[in-house]
Amino acid sequence: MTAVRPDPIATGSDVLSLGRGGPTVQRIMLGTRLRRLRESLNITRDRAASAIRASDAKLCRMELGRVGFKQRDVADLLTLYGVHDPEARQEYLESVQRANEPGWWRAYGDAFPSWFEQHLGLEEAASLIRTYEVQFIPGLLQTPDYAEAVIRLGHPISSPEAIQRRVELRMTRQALLSRPGAPKLWVVVDEAALRRPLGGKDVMRAQLEHLVEVAARPNVTLQVLPFHVGGHAAAGGPVTVLRFPVPDLPDVVYLEQLSSALYLDKPEEVDHYLAVMDRLSLVASPAVDSVSFLEQVLADLT
Q1: pLDDT band at 66, cuts 50/70/90?
Q2: Which terminus of the chain has a lower count of CB atoms within 10 Å, N or C?
Q3: Measuring CA to CA, which residue among 61, 59, 41 is closest to residue 50?
Q4: Alpha helices in the chain (DSSP H)
Q5: Is the pLDDT confidence value at 84 over 60?
Q6: Integer Cα distance of 231 and 112 in angstroms
């Protein structure tokens, strides 16, 4: 078998050089590279899975970056795929180490469900986050008091300490918007979320004032979808689309449900939701007019 060199476009160091090399992205990158190697050699998933004493389903999850990696498994796959060059093998094995490092959010492991961890990792690595919210202000733009009110709705029997931990996690997430190389956040908020006074008038007033402030940031675009628009393309619920600064990482659509979430990355699915987001942005008020709209909602609260 001819020795195979790693694809230079898909190296994990490319992500690291952009400062967004969290473990979630490292797993996806490594899985993608291994899948490309396998497919370039016309090796079936069954054969590759057998080489690492695993099931076809486990190998599929590895190639999608949805599970951790063992160095022994990756080493055995590299041997099967003809990657014998010591430097090339070492680069892959270093990627395994990066992929298995805990993210900062592990310190808040008690404050979020397991299905939310992937979103935290993807959000940390994204260069563009597009989101539509119908019921609440998006989490990345919530004030602490508003976040507490939202969290209490979903966790009415949780202790004050547990509620506070979830609030702290949400506030820590927001740090990504002000770091060097911060992602672009493009938000469309339904008027219903602005009119619903969660936490009372004072909390809502502070939240709306915060939205006016963050809308002035160069990496934040905020649009309001007013009631008079009527029906629209995303009537089903909130949608988030995450885009990454590396070509090897496909866009991911995140759909949060009551007790779980869907992560979609198939091109046809992503294209559908991107079209939905484009239509929403077209019918929503432009960013400048949306700030005026927020100020009017603020005036209505007094």
Answers
A1: confident
A2: C
A3: 59
A4: 12-17, 23-40, 45-51, 56-63, 71-80, 86-99, 117-125, 144-154, 160-173, 191-195, 201-214, 267-283, 287-301
A5: yes
A6: 33
Cα separation of 302 and 298, whole Å?
7
3-class SS of residue 19:
coil
List, in order of start, the domains of the chain with CATH numbers: 8-99 (1.10.260.40), 113-301 (3.30.870)
Question: How far is 275 from 223, CA to CA, in rounded Å?
Answer: 17
Tokens representing 201 are: 């008038």
- pTM here? 0.82
Neighbouring residues of 102: CB distance < 8 A, sequence distance ≥ 6:
23
Placement of tokens 């180490």 in the chain: 97
pLDDT tens sequence across 229-260? 866 665 667 999 999 887 767 899 999 888 88
Q: What six digits make up the tokens of 57?
A: 């389903």
